[in-house]
Amino acid sequence: MNATEENSEMQNQTPDGIDLAPGRSTESAADTSTTSDGRAGDEAPENDARAATDEQNADTTAGNDAPAQSEPPLDPLDAAQAEIASLKDAWQRERAEFTNYRKRMQNEKALIRENAVGSMAQNLLEAMDNLDRVLVAKSENPEVQNFVEGVRMIQSQFYNSFQKHNIEVINPMEAPFEPARMEAIATEDRPELQQETVLEVFQVGYVQNLSTGPYVLRPARVKVGKPGASPAE
Question: Which of 11, 133, 178, 225 could pair with 190 as two cysteines, CB 3.0-4.6 Å apart?
């Protein structure tokens, strides 16, 4: 060993003969170990969190991939009964609608027929009035009397036809006055009367009894007596 190497070894040793070089190497190793342990301690929670997230995602994926529970198959008897109930309900609805339609058509048909009869009867009212005028005539001549009797028979046939179609004559002699069925042409005070009363019929009226209610083809034209106070003595 030369003088230079001996001098170097003496500088690296303490007075007690302890070698300082290996000590510095030990501290450096300790620092390196401490740094490595610190980084490992920081990375451990991150790894745990990442592992927990991956596990949760795996559970979620497994839950989504799991096959859905299928409903149990319907009993054939129950299915047949449900179908029968549905068909029965549909049939009852159709039957009710058809029944209502048939009734509605019957009512409309009857109303059309009644309106046609009423329109025809109105066209015959003037002829009926002429027959009434003939019957009012007075004569002692036998031929005229026979003629009047024949007219009376014709009038009776008209009345019978009217009655078959629910058409009635309004001849309210001495009957209470009804504004809905009568027309007052003249009035007269009658203290002895308790209510308005027909005193004279100038022209008979006709009313048709429809399915919807009575319909006046023509009101009777009358003279009405009105109750009034007794004249002062």
Answer: 225
pLDDT value for 50: 64
How many domains does the chain divide into? 1
Q: Residue 39: pLDDT above 50? A: no
Cα angle 102, 106, 108 (rounded to 5 degrees) comes to 115
User: What Cα–Cα distance (Å) separates residue 171 from each residue in 164, 168, 178, 203?
Assistant: 18, 9, 12, 8
Three-state DSSP class for 207?
strand
pLDDT in tens, 61-75: 544 544 455 666 778
Assign residue 178 the CATH number of its domain: 2.30.22.10
Query: What tokens were used for 192?
Result: 């002895």
Instruction: Specify the long-range contacts of residues 159-168, CB closer than 8 Å, at least 24 apart.
Output: 162/121, 162/206, 165/114, 165/117, 165/121, 165/208, 166/114, 166/208, 166/209, 166/210, 167/117, 167/118, 167/121, 167/206, 167/207, 167/208, 167/209, 167/217, 168/206, 168/207, 168/208, 168/209
